[in-house]
Amino acid sequence: MQISTRRRRSRRGLRVIALIGALVLMFGFAGPAAAQSDELAPDEISHSKNIDDVVNIPRQGPNAEFFHSDIAFWGDLAIQGTYGGLNFYDIKHPQKTKPISEFFCPGGQGDPSVSPDGSLVFMSVDAPRSDGTCQSRPSSAVIPTAWEGVRIIDISDVNDAKQVAAVQTDCGSHTHTLVPDDSGDVVYLYVSSYGPNPAFPNCQPPHDSISIIEVPLDDPASASVIAKPVLFPEGGAPGTAGCHDITVFPEEDLAAGACMGEGVLIDISDPTAPYVITTVTDDNFAFWHSATFSNDASRVIFTDELGGGLGATCTEENYPERGANAIFDIVGEGDDRQLVFRSYFKIDRHQGSNENCVAHNGSIIPVAGRDIMVQSWYQGGVSVWEFTDPDNPVELGYFERGVATEFFLGGSWSAYWYNGYIYSSDILKGLDVLKVTGTRGIPSANRVKQTHFNAQTQYRLGPGRN
Q1: Is residue 396 very low, low, confident or very high in pLDDT (cuts 50, 70, 90)?
Q2: What angle do CA 431, 436, 438 make, to 5 degrees?
């Protein structure tokens, strides 16, 4: 293992990251899931004694033929992204979760976030379209008029959602991060994208930047790109050509970014002019995918998406520190802050060679005095794990389906804690609602209530770890 801060260049790392990046791009541009038959997906449920399978809502409606992706929450509403549009669920009574409506508007991968007042949904589109409307057709990145970016959807009436704006961004929007403004009048969206190519008019190399969209909440139709800050003026680590994912912690004016070839800490004290404080690279990481802060923002979990979500990387043959999480302490103050590596965590429930499995999206469970996270692992299922002792992380519970007898893309894309329950967006199986029981400390987390939740906009919840 070799971990370096600031700049460390490796030709081998560049080749590996380029390969994985290509796989991730392939996944990001995937279309309808019609070829991924539900009949292939195992229906057997396996879970630890402390995880209850509460309910499953299968794919349905106009988005049923598309991969299901990320989730956002507002009040009693769960908003699920898909490659075909958005699904809305009533979760007022989680054990009786029920679908409300679907919004059909194709454009992968459809990751959503919701405005603080619950009136708008922002939806990432990272697949070239003929234009920004919901009636658009698939296009090609080599066509100058092709559109990719962020759609803005008015959900004042979820039974009659309407697109009110479409903001084009360089290289599209693979993911985006909602950044609140102190005024409460606007929100900013940090748009993460990658995959530049000289042949793509709207995605030119080196693309060491992000796009910042400003959205006036009283006039979302006027949303526009107001800045394109270059995060890596020196070019970044090998393989860095944009970011995959950025998570902000507004109370600390801090962000953590997973930028393909490196992990970064970012100062966001001026949300329109973020800048990188420090970086870290790791030879064991193939593709820096996402970042999650601990509840007190003293640590950050970076995720390695080895195989781009398409590979069976949870087999016994794979090293336990690859396709895993890396735990870092944040030490120092201000611009002198550094990332100090502590350990890796990877599920030790080895999966079959037909099962795509790697660390993916998750969130903190706000247990008083402890660091606990819930996380998706594609066909590795949903894992609840603890890193209170950052040198000895351990799995506390899990939920997964049976062993696949042939390869298909499936499993849990995102798994998040929201007001006492875990919601897992399954690529092929729709939405799973899970409940953690009989685990020390969970009652304290159950008492923490949120009004809304976007995974990439973190707040301190409850007392946390002191």
Answers
A1: very high
A2: 160
